[in-house]
Batch of 3 targets.
Target 1
Amino acid sequence: MPTIINSTIVMKEHALKANRRSFLKGGLAIGGMALLHPQKALAAGIDRQDENFKIVAGPYLQTNFGNSISILWITNKNASSWVEYGPSADALDQKAFGQSELGLKPAGRINCVTLNNLKPGATYHYKIASKEIKDFQPYKLTYGETLSGNTEQFTNTDTAKDSVSFVMLNDIHDRPKSIPHLLGLDQGAKRDFVFFNGDVFDYQTNEQQIIDHMLIPCTDSFAKNIPFVYVRGNHETRGKFARDFSSYFHHVGHTAFTLGPVRFVILDTGEDKEDTHPVYAGIVDFDAYRLEQAKWLEQEISSKAFKKAPFRIVMMHIPPRYSGNAHGAVHCTEVFEPLLNKGKVDLVLSGHTHRYKVHAPDKNGNHYPLIIGGGPREGTRTITRITATKKDINVSMLDDSGKEVGSYKVTKR
C-alpha cells in the first residue's frame, strides 16, 4: 500500500511539473480562469489566501473622451480601491472611487475609476490605491494592507482641438512582444490614443492571458499615460472566458465620439462564422447583434455630431468588403456598407484578413477608402499611423521593419 501511495504522489508531482511548464510556455494556465471570482477559485481547489496582497496589472487608461478618463487596475484579492489625483504630483487633493451600484461601492479585484469633469487640455497626476478586504462579514468588514501605485500623469485631450493623431494595431494574436515592437516604430511621436482593432488574442482562456498578453505590454509601453480604445475582433468572441472579457476594459463594443475634427464610429463586427456553426453549440447570436448595430449606425449617421464633423472615420475589425466569403464578412457587407456609403464616411480602418492593403474608393462598392492592417506573423505585422486636421487626413502604414507599405490622403470635400 505505501508503494502505491508513493507512486501516486510521484505521478502527481510529474503532472504538476508538466502543468507548470505548459503555463510558462503559453501563459494560459487553466487555474487563472477563476481569478475573477474567488468563490469559483476555491471550488476549483485554488486557494490564494497565502499570497501577499498585490497589484497584478495596471494602471492602464481608457477613454471615450468628453473630458473624462477611466483608470483600471487589477489586484489579486478583493479590495476597496480609489484614485487620488490633482494638478501636480505634490497636490493629489482629489479622490475618486469606482461607480456605485444600488448604493454600493465596488469591493472586488478589477478596479475601474472614472475621473469626470476634467479640464480640456489639462495635465493631471494620479495614484491608484487599494485596501485589502481580509474578511467580509454581514456586520463586520476587516481590512488588511493598503497598497499605492507610483504617481503617474496624463493629459486630458481637448475635444475641440484642431487636429487628432493616433495609431492602430490589429491582429496581434497572442504575440505580446509585437505590441512594444510595433509601437517602437512610432517612438517619439505624440499620439492622442492607441486603437486596438481586434484579435489581440486567439481566443479567451483566462485572466492571466489578458494580463500577460495585453495589459502588461500596454502598461509597460504607454497605457499609464496615454489611453487606448479597443473593439473586439472575431477571435475575442471565442473561448470559455469570452463572456468575462469585457470586465477588464472600460469599453470594448460599438460606440461613437468626437475628437478634434473627427467623428469616430466604432463597430463591433462579431464572429465570422455562422451562429449555427457547431463550435458555438447554439449559444451565440451575432447576426442579431450586427442588425442592432446597423439600426444604431443609421441613427448615428443622422446625428448632428456626425453631420457637422469635418471628417468621419469608421473603425471595425472585419472589413465591410474584401474579406472573403465567410458568413460574418458577407453579413458585414450587407448590413454596414450601404449605411457607410449613405453616411458618406471619409475613411474605414479594419484588420482581420492578415494582408495589409489600401483600397481606394469604388463607385460600385465602398465609396470610401478602406485601409486594412496586416497579420500577426513577422513580415506581415503593421502599425497604421493616422493624423487628421480640419483640412485632411493622412494615413501611413508601416510594416514591422519600419518600411512604409501603404499610404492615403483624404482631403475635405
Target 2
Amino acid sequence: MHLIQQKNIFFIGLLLAFNVSCFAHGVDSKTAHFLTTTQGSAIGPFLYIGAKHMVTGYDHLLFLVGVIFFLFRSRDIFIYVSLFTLGHSLTLLFGVLNHININVYLIDAVIAFSIIYKGFDNLGGFKQLFGIQPNTKIAVLFFGLFHGFGLATKLQDFALPQENLITNMLAFNVGVEIGQLIALLFILTFLGFWRRHNSYFTFSTTSNTLLMSGGLVLLGYQLTGYFTSL
C-alpha cells in the first residue's frame, strides 16, 4: 500500500507540474515587448529571461529528467549535462546570429521525439528490439543541438534588435544555463530522495513509460499544429 501511495503521489505531482508548465512556458506580453523594443546592451534582463525560459521549459526539463534518471555518479551527471549544454548553446547562438529560422512546430516535434527516445533508451528498448545500444553521449549531444535551435527559433519570432545582439545573446545563454542548474538541483534533490526507496526501481519502467507518453503527447500536438498551419 505504501508503494502504491508513493507511485500515485509521484504521478500526480508530475502531471500537475506538466500542466502548470504548459501555461508558463509561453512568453508573456511584457517580455515580448521588451525583446522587440530594447536597444543596446541589456545583460541583466536577458539573463533573467534565459533562466525563466529554461525553468518553465517543460520539454527541455523532461528530456533532462530522462538523461539523468539512471545516472548515479556525480561525474556521469556532469558529463551528460555538459554535453547537453554544449549542444544547445552552440545552436542557440549560431541560429540567432546567423538568422537560421526553422519551423517552430517541426523543431519542437524533434524535441518531443528526443523525450520519447530517452525514455525508450532508459527502458532498454534498443537492446531488446534491435540488439544494439546507441552511444548515449552522442545522442544527448545530438538532441541538444535541436533543443538549441528550438530556443533560437522562438527568439527570432520577436525580431530582436541587432544592436549589441551578441552580448545580449551571450547573456541569454548564460541565463539558460543558470535556469538549467536551478531546475537540475530540484530534480536531483527529488530523485535523490526517491532513490532511497525500493519504489524507485520498482516503478522505473512505469516512470519512463510515462516519460515516453508525455513525449508522444507533445509530438502529436506539434505535428497537428504543423499540418493545420499549412
Target 3
Amino acid sequence: MISVRVPATSANLGPGYDAVGLALSLGTRIGLDRASHPQVEVRGTGADLIPRGPEHPAYRAARFVAELVGESDVHFHLVQENEIPPIRGLGGSAAALVGGIIAANDLFGGQIAAPDLLNIVCELDGHPDNAAPALLGGLVIGTMTSGSISAVRLEPKNLKAVVAVPDFAVSTTAARRALPDLVPHRDAAFNVGRSGLLLGALATGEYDLLRVAMQDRLHQPYRSHLIPGLEDVIEAALANGAYGACLSGSGPTVLAFTPEAHAPDVAPAMRAAFEARGVTAASWKLDIDLAGARVEPPGEVAAPTLEPVF
C-alpha cells in the first residue's frame, strides 16, 4: 500500500484572501492500494465527519488520476489516518485530495509530471490557497491563470504558528455566503497594501510588521458573526506576544504567528478568550511544515517541490 503524509494548511492569512496558504505540522496520512471493489477506512480525529465511500475526497482524487493514466476500471482500498480537525478551516479536504493524487500517481508508476500535479491539485480543489501548500509545503502565494497555477514558495524562518480550534464547525458554503458581492474601494486598497506588506514581512523575517500586515477588511468582518469571540481571540494573541493573528481559512480556527518564546503564552490565552465567550476550544503550537506531501517508505518518492525564493 502506498502511504502519503500531507500537512494541514491555513489559507487566506488575513489580507491574502484566496491567494496565500501555509503548511502546518499537523497532518493526515492517506494509504492507497488496488482493490476488487471500493473500500474506504477512516481513523483518527473527526473520523465520524469524513465520508467512508467513493465520495471521500482522496478516493475521488485517486479516481481522477486513474482516468488520466488510462486505468478507468480500477478500484481502491483507501485508509486515512487523520490528525486534522475537519470543517475547522485547516484544509482537511484539500490535504486528503492531495494525498489521493500523490498516492495514485505513485501507485501507477509516477506517470504525471511534477508541474502537472500542481495544476491538477489546484484545479480539483478550485483554488490554490490550501492545495498548493499542502502539496509543496512552506508558504505559497499562488493564482490560477488559464488552467495553470502560477506560484511562489517561501520558507519563513524562526516562526511558530499557534492555532486555536473551537469545538464547532463553520461550513465553507455559509462562510462564502457571508461575503458581499461588492466591497468599498477603500477596503480593497486597504487589503492590497497589507497583502504586499504581509509577503514582504514573511520573506525578509521582519515579523514585527505582521501586526499591521495581517489586518483584513475583505472577509473577516463579514464572517465574524459566525465565530463568537473572533476579535477577542485575535486581541488575546497580540496581547500575549504574537506578531499577528487572523482567521484561518473560512474558520472557525484562529491562527497566530509567534516567536518561539511567546508561543507557550499565546496558545492558552487564545483558548481562554474563546472559553470566555462560552466556546470550548483546543490550542496547539505548530511548526511550519516545509516538506509538503511526501510518499513514505517503502517507496520514499518525494512529492514535487518549488525551490523557495528566499
